[in-house]
Every structure is written in C-alpha cells, then in structure tokens.
C-alpha cells in the first residue's frame, strides 16, 4: 500500500485515473476506505487521490496524540499534494474534511482549483452548530476512548448496532484520532471566507441533525459566490454524487479552456 512521509507521520494514500488532480478529504474519525466507490467514479474525470488523515485507520498515529487542529490537517494535505506533484487540485471535503479544505484554500489559494463542501461546519458561524459540537465533545470526553466512535455515530446518524461492521470497526479503532479532532475544535479564519474566489459548492443533507444542517447553511451564507444545494439522505453525502460530478466537470472544463 502506498504511503508518504508527511510532516512527521506516514500517510496512506491511493490514486486512480489521470489528468487534473481531485483530492478527497474524509471526515472526523473516518477513513478513505469509505470513499473507494466514489474515487472510482471520480477517476473517470481526473486523477482521484484519497488518503487517510493523520491518526486515522491506515495512516500513522502520532504518539502521544491528544489533540490536533484543522490547520495541521490542512498542512498535511498541502504536503501530500506537493509530494505527489498534484497542484493545483479540486478538493472534495466531507464534514470536518471540508473545513480542512477551506483552511487549505484560505492559506494556500494557488493550490486549489475549486472546493465541494459536503456539510462542512466551521465553528463560529452558527451558534446552534457550535453548541451541538461542544456538547458532543463533552460527551466524548466522558466515555472510554473505545466508545468515542460509537458516541459520535449515534449522535450524527442515530445508529450504531445497525451499521455495517466496516463502519463500526473503523470508528472504534479511530477513537483516539476522533477525540483529538474534537479537542482541537473545527476552527478556521472565518473572517476571510467571503474573500474566496474559487468555484465553491456547498451541499446540505435533508436527514442530517438540524445543528449540522444549520452549520452548513451558515457556511453557504458566508461564501457569497457558493452554489448551495440541498440533497436527500444523511450526513454521509456521496463524494461522487450527481451534483459533485457536475461541479467537478465544470471546473475541469474551465481548466481546459484556460
């Protein structure tokens, strides 16, 4: 399995297809293993790159790993793109991964062609989302680390025992990483969001918990040029759903013309 040494840790990554790079960034406590089908479909448009963020699943976990930050993960994503000679890239970020993509675009705009944000929710935009996040973080501090993933999944999806074994296994094993991500919060420089000039797509899901939807909607309002679309389903929005594929196709068309 391919790994790259990134900012002191070994990150697992995978590549499919050729052409313009498309980087997928997974959510908190998750893994690129859940993006495999989407990556196959995205590889029909360009060079699809997915990876496990630091501390998650097949990537190395720092020791100790008590807390992390959006910026740390954005720097990892930047270094991965540079090592793979994959700049600039279209970014697709789900949940926390979308906030990582935004931070990367804000601080290194030349690295990004456009961003699809699948219910990303930076703190500081929606009081309802912020309160929900703080309460979730508190709940995860009060359970054994082996139950952090279960706690989050029950809150976000209203399920645990019914989930596939692969989901439960990954989120259980990623408990330390998930707790570190919650401790570091989900903060970026919100004051600069209105200055982003990249093509932007914000997707919000019908069946997500209301605070998550509110956070995504607040993000859309903070990005004046973003296209905001409400889709069916829950928080696990398909990274290669029809709206995302259309968005990426449009960006690649513009890239070809220029």
What this model shows, in words?
The protein has 258 residues and is α/β, with parallel strands linked by helices. The chain is 41% helix and 18% strand. The chain contains 9 helices and 8 strands. It has helices at 36-42, 70-83, 96-107, 127-141, 148-157, 165-173, 175-183, 210-222, 242-257, and strands at 3-6, 9-16, 21-25, 47-51, 89-94, 112-118, 200-205, 227-231. The chain has an 8-stranded mixed sheet with strand order 1-2-4-3-5-6-7-8, sandwiched between helices. α1 (36-42) links the parallel β3 and β4 (47-51). α4 (127-141) packs antiparallel against α5 and α4 (127-141) crosses α8. The longest helix is centred in the last third of the chain and has 16 residues, at 242-257. It is globular. The relative contact order is 0.16.
Which structural class do you get from the secondary structure elements? alpha/beta
For the largest beta-sheet, the strand count, sense and barrel status come to: 8 strands, mixed
Which sequence of strands runs across the widest sheet?
Answer: 1-2-4-3-5-6-7-8
Helix content: 40-55%
User: Please, how many helices?
Assistant: 9
Rg value: 17 Å
Name the average pLDDT.
96
Choose one word for the global shape.
globular
The rounded distance between the terminal residues' Cα atoms is 35 Å
Order of helices and strands: EEEHEHEHEHHHHEHEH
Give unreliable regions as ranges: none
Give the total of beta strands.
8
Strand content: 15-25%
């Amino acid at each position: 399995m391919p790994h790259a040494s990134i900012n002191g840790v070994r990150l697992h990554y995978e590549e499919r297809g050729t052409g313009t790079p498309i980087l997928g960034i997974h959510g908190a406590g998750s893994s690129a293993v859940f993006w495999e089908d989407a990556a196959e479909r995205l590889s029909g448009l360009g060079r699809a790159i997915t990876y496990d963020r630091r501390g998650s699943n097949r990537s190395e976990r720092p020791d100790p790993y008590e807390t992390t930050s959006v910026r740390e993960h954005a720097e990892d994503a930047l270094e991965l793109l540079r090592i793979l000679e994959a700049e600039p890239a279209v970014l697709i970020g789900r949940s926390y991964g979308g906030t990582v993509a935004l931070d990367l675009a804000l601080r290194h705009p030349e690295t990004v062609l456009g961003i699809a944000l699948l219910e990303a929710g930076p703190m500081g935009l929606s009081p309802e989302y912020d309160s929900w996040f703080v309460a979730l973080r508190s709940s995860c501090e009060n359970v054994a680390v082996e139950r952090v993933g279960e706690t989050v999944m029950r809150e976000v999806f209203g399920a645990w025992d019914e989930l596939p074994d692969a989901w439960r296994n990954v989120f259980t094993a990623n408990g330390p990483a998930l707790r570190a991500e919650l401790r570091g919060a989900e903060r970026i420089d919100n004051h600069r969001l209105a200055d982003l000039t990249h093509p932007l797509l914000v997707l919000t899901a019908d069946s997500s918990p209301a605070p998550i939807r509110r956070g995504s909607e607040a993000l859309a309002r903070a990005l004046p040029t973003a296209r905001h679309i409400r889709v069916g389903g829950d928080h696990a929005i398909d990274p290669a759903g029809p709206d995302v594929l259309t968005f990426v196709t449009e960006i690649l068309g513009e890239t070809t013309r220029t």
